[in-house]
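B., you asked whether I could sanity-check this one before it goes into the benchmark set. Here's the sequence:
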Amino acid sequence: MDNQLIGDPQPAGQPEDLVRLLAAKDLEIAAMQKKLEKYEAIFQGLSDGVLLIDETLSECNQEACQIWKCEKEDIIGFFPSDFAPLFQPDGENSYEIAQKKVSEALHGNIQKFEWKDIRRDGIMIDTQVILNRIEVDGKGYVLATFKDITDLKIKENEKQALLHMMEKIIEDRTRTLQEYNESLNEEIARRKRTERNLEHAYMELEHIFDTSGDGILVLDSDRNIVRANLAFAELVEQPVEGIMGKKCFDIFPCRHKCTDHCIIQEIVVGSSKTDFEKEFVSVSGERKSCRVKAAALRNEGGEVLGIVKNYKDLTSYKRWVDRLQESEEFHRITLESIWDAIFLTTDDGRIVFVSCNVTGIFGYDSDEILGFDTIFELVGNRFYSGLELESTREIRNLELEITDKAGQKRTLIANVKRAALRSGTTLIAFRDITERKNAERRAKIEYEQLVQAGKMVSLGILVSGVAHEINNPNNSIILNIPLLSRMWYDARVILDEYMEENGDFMLGSLRYSYAREHVPQLFSGVMTSSRRIKHIVQDLKNYARQGSSVMNEVIDINGVLRAAVLLLDNQLQKATSRLEIGYGFGMPHFRGNFQKIEQVIINILQNACEAVDDKSKAIRVRTGFDTSLGQTWLEVADEGQGISDEDLPHVTDPFYTTKRTCGGTGLGLSISSRIMQEHGGELTIHSRLGEGTRVRLTFPARQEGGAA
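And here's what the prediction gave me:
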């Protein structure tokens, strides 16, 4: 029965009240459908955009699509901030502020605000947004209505600009009227002040005229003196009463006397003012000098009413100028006579004066020096501290190194002093102490060499004593080994017979069959070692004894190398397991000092041992003869740490060392270079950091003696 009611709205025999109920429901559904269509039409026909916001945009009307210039499917599922720039005009993040506004609306707080949107065509627009909470089927939604107010905002801005402009015009007009009124009041007040000032000015002029240190004359149009002050009377050594009414040339001698060449006549003709210097002899016979200035007094029509003349006494000034010129000449001669270079600079180091003898120190002439921006550009930024100079007012004995125009290194000593001169504030004096420093370096080197020589003398004495103590037992070994060896050979006959009868036996913890073959080798090894000890001790005595300055010894470079290697054998074995020595064949001899050349080779070999930080890295030593140049050469190459490009040019400088922390003195290569120069030879070094070093010694071969 139920199935029939569901499937057939009017089954046969259905009660009439159920039929009426279904008919009523149908009418109600139809009415609701019409109402829904009406609301849909209203929803779509609204002039404002309408959005339904759940967690995202779930519904929108056609106007919303029109405002954002997109289709409905481009809106549904997105969030309002997706149609806005990343930040709103107030700087807040669009997504965060949208979340906040929607949350407030969901809590029942109506939100009304202006919002920046970006249409799908990329154009930014202004919108007015209202957010309300609505409930559908018991669930809360946010209903957003918004409209495009871009044009309205533009019109409002234009209106505001127009209103602002009108207000500005009104303000300007009002201000102009106020200023005009104030200017009238000020003009009235000014005229009153002017009247009072004129009265004061007349009194002041009277006072200035009477008390001025310059002489003043007032002439009428006929050049008669109508006024004269006390200073003029003192200048011409006449009383004021005796001056009044006279002509100016009667009081102040003038050869022109109102002719066309007179200065006063020139003023009358057309010049407004003039000035000149004048010398005269006063009543007391004193020669005086003054500067005369004259100006015409004219009416509005340009007619000359009178003349004012000012006489400034220059007598003391001229004397002061003469003394100043004399002092300037004295100081100029003094500056030219001294060796120091004098600079005057401003606070920031700008050079304003330089003495003429600067060329001798810096190599630049005065004009080239002034071409430098500051003194610091010339001698370095760390020349002196401005704060220190400000506190001490003077810094003395500043030592610095500079490079002159020719590229030569120079050592200077500078004194810096604050100066209260008109053109500069800092006085700097440079003195070249390069020669003195070089002399000090040479003296230090010679002192170090004397100390080294003393050490070598002490070492020679010590070595002689030690050598004697070593040679005595060593000689005993050398003398007794042959005797022991012969005794062994004699005893071996008896021992062989014993072994044939009794078989092998123990002899000194060794089986006789083994000892029979190896004891002779032990004797030979002990003899060889003893002879090596003897040679080492002899070479050590030769190296340590006081050297001769004679340079005419016949030198075999291979022999010198062998002696050096023998002395450094232990150090070389510890430094590398790849020591390679190649002795040249047919090497010509040359003359020199054996001990000094041996010292050079030892220094170079020691440096190579110290440079190698791994025994697997090689040290290669070779000798040879260059027939084209006629030179004997020795070369030491290592695979050590190498020398940096910054250090390489200085390795032969005295006291320059990169091994100071481990005892380096910086004298080894310096002394070696000097020894090579004494022999007419050359020491050259080629090195790259991390790739090793190659040192080459070259000697001019003179074919002395035989060949090695």
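One thing to flag: The radius of gyration is 58 Å. Otherwise nothing jumped out at me.
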